[in-house]
Amino acid sequence: MATRFSSLSVSAFLSPSITHKRFSLLIKTPLVHLKRRLYVTSLRTLETDPSLPPSVQTFWQWLYDEGVVSAKTPVKPGIVPEGLGLVAQKDISRNEVVLQVPKRLWINPDAVAASEIGQVCSGLKPWVSVALFLIREKSRDDSIWRYYFKILPESTDSTIYWSEEELAEIQGTQLLSTTLGVKEYVESEFTKVEEEIILCNKQLFPTPITLDEFFWAFGILRSRAFSRLRNQNLVVIPLADLINHSARVTSEDHAWEIKGAAGLFSWDTLFSLRSPLSVKAGEQIFIQYDLKKSNAELALDYGFIEPKAERNAYTMTLEISESDPFFGDKLDIAESNGFSETVYFDIFLDQSLPQGIIPYLRLVALGGSDAFLLESIFRNSIWGHLELPVSRANEEHICEVVRDACKSALAGYPTTIEEDEKLKEANLDSRLAIAVGIREGEKKVLQQIDGIFKDRELELDQLEYYQERRLKDLGLCGEQGEIIFWES
C-alpha cells in the first residue's frame, strides 16, 4: 500500500450552525432555496464499481461529496494483487496529474493541534500525537475521516505484525534484531503516553486505547506517511495513499504542493500526484516509495521486498572501542572527517564498498608501530594516509577481523543459500517469501564482503604501504621497492 498522511483542521471543515442559517433563510423567502447550491455535494451521487467492497464505494462517494473527485477523475480505487490500488480510468501520459487532495483532508500534526486533543498532545513526539489522533478519530462515528478509516487495513505484512513462529523464519538476520528493537521502542512509547496522557485525560479518551491499536497506528504511519512535501515531515493523505509501489518506477518525483480549487467554492493547498509512467486505461498507477531503502527496510516499513539484487544489504557496524589506548586521538580524527565513535555502513549486493569504510577500518585497527600516525603533526593529513594501505600488519588485521565477522554471522542462519533458493521455487505465502528473500539476500552480501577481503589478503604482498611511499617521496626507494643507498 502506498503512503500518505493528510492534515485537516476539524474546526475549519465543520461550519457552525449551518443548518439553522439555511432554515431561517428559507422561512424569509422561498426564492432563497436556490442557495442550496452550497449543499449540492451532499446530494450528488457518483457511479461506483459494483465489484468494489461497499466500504470502498462509500469512501469514493465521500471524496466525491467533498469535491475531491469527479466523474472526470482519471483514476479510481481498484482491487489489485496488492489489495487496493489506483487504477487508470483512461490512458494517462507520463507526469500527468492523476489526483489532487486539499489540505483540509490531510492528517498531520497540524490536524492534531487543531483538534480537541491538540493541547494535551503538544509536547509529544509528532508521530505519537498523530498515532493517538488516528486511534481516537477511528473510534468516532462523527469523524470527518470515518469513511477513510473503514478502508484501512488492520495490519500489513510488515515484520512488526509477525507472530513468533513467523519471526523464527528470519532467525540470524539483521531484520529480526531491527524488528524486535522497533517493537520494544513502540511498546515503551505506548507505556509512557498511556501513563502521561491517556489515563490522565479520560474525558478526551473515554475509550481505553490498547497496545494493539497503538501498533496499528504506528504501522499506518510507517507505511503511508509522506515526508517529502514542503514543510511536511509526517502527513497522511486519503486516496493518495492507495497508490502502490513498483520497482519499474525509477524516480521519486511524483508529489507536489500546489495552490488550487479545493471544492466548489474554496481554494486551498493541494497535494498533487502525478503518474511517473505512461499507463493504459484499466492498468494500475504506481510510484516509487524510496530508491535507497534496502529490502529489510521495505519489509519493515511496508511488508514487501523486491527481487532486485541491489536491494539486498547488510549493515556493518564499526566502533572505536573506549578501551583502545588511543581512543581519544582516534575519535578526534574520526569526528574531524565526518564520522563518529560508532559508524554504520550499509553494504549492498553487487555494489562496491561504501566510501569511507576502508579508511575507518584502518583507523580502528591502527596501533603498534603504526601509532605514530596518530601524533598531532599528522592530524591534518592522516585521513589521506588512511585512504591508502598503512602497513601489512594493519591491512592483514582488517582482513582477518572482517572475514571472521562474516563467518560468524553466516553461521547464525538456520538455512543455506542453496536451501533458500530451493524454497523459493515453491508457492510461499507472502510473509515466508519475505523471510526467505531477506535471509538469502543477507547471506549473499556477507559472502560478497568475505570475498572482497579474501581477495585483499591475497594481494597483501603486492600492496604499497606508508613506509614505502614515504621513502619514494624522499628518493630512497626504487620503483620495485628496493632501498636506495647513496654513496658519499
Task: Describe this protein's structure.
The protein is of the alpha+beta class and 488 residues long. It has two domains: 1-306, Alpha-Beta Complex (set domain protein methyltransferase, domain 1); 307-473, Alpha-Beta Complex (set domain protein methyltransferase, domain 2), CATH 3.90.1420. Helix content is 39%, strand content 10%. The protein has 18 helices and nine strands. The chain has helices at residues 10-13, 18-28, 40-43, 54-65, 109-113, 126-139, 146-149, 164-167, 174-198, 211-224, 295-301, 327-336, 357-365, 382-386, 392-410, 417-423, 430-458, 466-473, and strands spanning 75-80, 83-88, 97-102, 244-245, 255-261, 267-274, 286-287, 313-319, 342-348. It has a three-stranded antiparallel beta sheet, with no helix packed on it. Strand 5 (255-261) and strand 6 form a beta hairpin. Helix 6 (126-139) packs across helix 10 and helix 16 packs antiparallel against helix 17. The chain starts with 9 loop residues before the first helix and ends in a 15-residue tail after the last helix. Mean pLDDT is 87; it is low at 1-43.
Q: How many domains make up the 3D coordinates?
A: 2
Element-by-element helix/strand order: HHHHEEEHHHHHHEEEEHEHEHHHHHH
Structural class: alpha+beta
Biggest sheet, open or closed, and with what strands and sense? 3 strands, antiparallel
CATH superfamily of the largest domain: set domain protein methyltransferase, domain 1
* Poorly predicted runs: 1-43
* Structure summary, number of beta strands: 9
EC number: 2.1.1.259
GO molecular function: [ribulose-bisphosphate carboxylase]-lysine N-methyltransferase activity; protein-lysine N-methyltransferase activity
Domain SET: 66-290
Subcellular location: Plastid, Chloroplast
